[in-house]
Fold this sequence. Notes:
Layout: H1 3-10, H2 22-33, H3 39-52, H4 56-69, E1 83-87, H5 98-107, E2 112-116, H6 126-132, H7 141-149, E3 154-157, H8 158-161, H9 163-170, H10 172-175, H11 180-185, E4 197-202, H12 208-217, E5 221-226, E6 242-245, E7 253-256, H13 272-283, H14 291-303, H15 310-319
Amino acid sequence: MDITQIVKEIGRGKNHARDLDQATAFQLYKAILQQDLDPLVLGAVLIALRIKGESEQEMLGFIGALQEKLPQFSLPDGGLMPVVIPSYNGARRQGNLTPLLALLLEKLGFPVFVHGIRQDPTRVTSETVFAALGISAVASPQQAEQQLRQGKLTFMAVDDWCPPLAKQLALRWQLGLRNSAHTLAKLASPYAAGKALQISAVSHPEYVPKVAAFFRHSQSLALLLNGCEGEVYANPRRGPALFAVSPQQETLQRLVERQEEQKALLPVSKSAEQTAHWIQQVLAGDIPVPQPIRLQVACCLLLARRCQDVTAGVEQLAAAGY
């Protein structure tokens, strides 16, 4: 691999840079994860990709290299389809409701694997909310796999799940910008393609087709939406459109239309303690589940083939007391 030539190709600026082919992208990202690049060269590569934007072929090459580093889990007992939820942004303005989404799915029998960052000095992470709920992060892939095989909700920090990826994510605080790792982390799964339902959020609606193309090419099953502050739960005040990508479907399928702005009773602050208290009230039936999140859970039931349509999914959630 000629790293100088690679930097030359991708570092020509937004209008003149050239995309790498999948094989070269695979070798490049493998070298990054193995920490084979000089720090100066690594910084140049990450900034060049940030300016240029990753192509589909580059993303496929990158994720292929990442999958080699990720511990792979066997499927849960009983044939239940697991759900994989990435959580790498956290809450900036309002309570982080990713733990609520995960807990509702667990209540309906899904083995749920949540992976994400431990701390962010500017936001409230899912791990801190889970901790306030009394749910501790697991420390090893073996422990995570064991819990998931039993159908339990499991949170694992990326530091323990994939240390090389965690190191690249942490470069954000040195470079001042996010990098390719933040996109890859949200596409990663410990299960073989198509064996789990992945929930993926994009920052802008126009990115949905690009992410959908990646999942379609990799034969994955995914629920896509415009995320809430970068997290994967549906915005409780402005429900986003919800899309499905399935190995059985050649085109992107819109399951739910974008919702009109609506009122929602939410946590009084974004703090982990207040958010956890609010989630406990929702699970106890004292506060209703926001409708956009109800629709999102219903879509998960539909994609797991546990109901016939979204309406039936909503009814199934209501029958469970939510």
